[in-house]
Amino acid sequence: MPRIPLPAPAALDTKLSDILKRRRSAGFSGNPDIPTTLQELGTLLGLSLRARENAHRNYPSGGGLYPIETYLISTQIESETPAVFHYNPSIHALEKLWGLPSRFNIKDIAKHPNSLPLSTLIVFTSVWKRSSAKYGDLSYLHALLEAGHMSENLLLVGCALGLDVRPYAGFDDAVVARLLDLDEEEEQAVHSITLCKGGGIQESNTVHED
Ligand SMILES: Cc1cc2nc3c(=O)[nH]c(=O)nc-3n(C[C@H](O)[C@H](O)[C@H](O)COP(=O)(O)O)c2cc1C
Q1: Which class for 77: exposed (0-12), middle (13-18), buried (19 or more C-beta within 10 A)?
Q2: Does the Cβ of 56 fall within 6 Å of ligand 1?
Q3: Which residue of 83, 113, 144, 148 lies most exposed, with the fewest beta carbons within 10 A?
């Protein structure tokens, strides 16, 4: 599948204590027509989720098994047509899976009608067997906890970058499973984050190259 290499993450010029004080879930005033740049995604996904050279990541995982995968359903990524992407944390790249259906409206992702603006839904799925082979039923808990750790990284980095990010459990499982072509016996969506820009609820933050 086509790979879109992401720029190296920019260093955040903000103290963690300041980011934590500023953090809040994005509201409803974002503009879904503003594209997210590859540099923003490179920083957001790279700092939050990328695998380090020693295979460790910036979030914990039960047994280091990393059962959670990350996908982006997006209508507005710089220079890309609306599509579904997989984030590959080992090579820090997006893998373009397929285009979104032509009549698809990203709001169709909501289980109930919703005015939350989004241009991208970042979806976490659990590949159950990766963890259940070792942990049995406990793998369910592990997967949810891991998705929570990953979410918090994304929410804090997103806040530092001035992006509008919001945890979002209100997605329609069937729609998301179809868009990602999931075999739900093996892999299921467990959580998601909406991404948008232009809401102006968080001050923008200065970043510089690492
Ligand atoms: C697991 C989880 C699921 C959430 N799902 C939704 C959702 O479906 N729709 C929504 O508008 N907000 C959702 N939120 C955001 C919460 O409404 C928000 O975190 C809460 O109102 C507190 O506001 P704050 O994050 O700005 O502190 C969710 C938050 C969490 C942690």
Answers
A1: buried
A2: no
A3: 113
pLDDT tens, 188-203? Answer: 999 999 999 999 754 4
Domain borders along the chain are 3-202
User: Which atom number of ligand 1 is nearest to the Cα of residue 116?
Assistant: 11
Token representation of residue 2: 């086509």
The CATH H-level superfamily of 3-202 is: NADH Oxidase (3.40.109.10)
Complete DSSP assignment for 145-185? HHHHHHHHHHHHHHHHTT-EEEE---B-HHHHHHHHT--TT
Residue 114 Cβ contacting ligand 1 at under 6 Å: no
As a whole number of angstroms, the distance between CA 125 and CA 72 comes to: 11
Q: Whose CA is nearest to atom 21 of ligand 1?
A: 25
Q: Is the Cβ–Cβ distance between 49 and 185 less than 8 Å?
A: no
- The whole-angstrom separation of Cα 207 and Cα 194 is 22
The whole-angstrom separation of Cα 113 and Cα 105 is: 12
* 82 contacts: CB under 8 Å, gap ≥ 6: 74, 75, 76, 99, 100, 104
pLDDT on residue 204: 40
pLDDT 10s digits, 147-179: 999 999 999 999 999 999 999 999 999 999 999
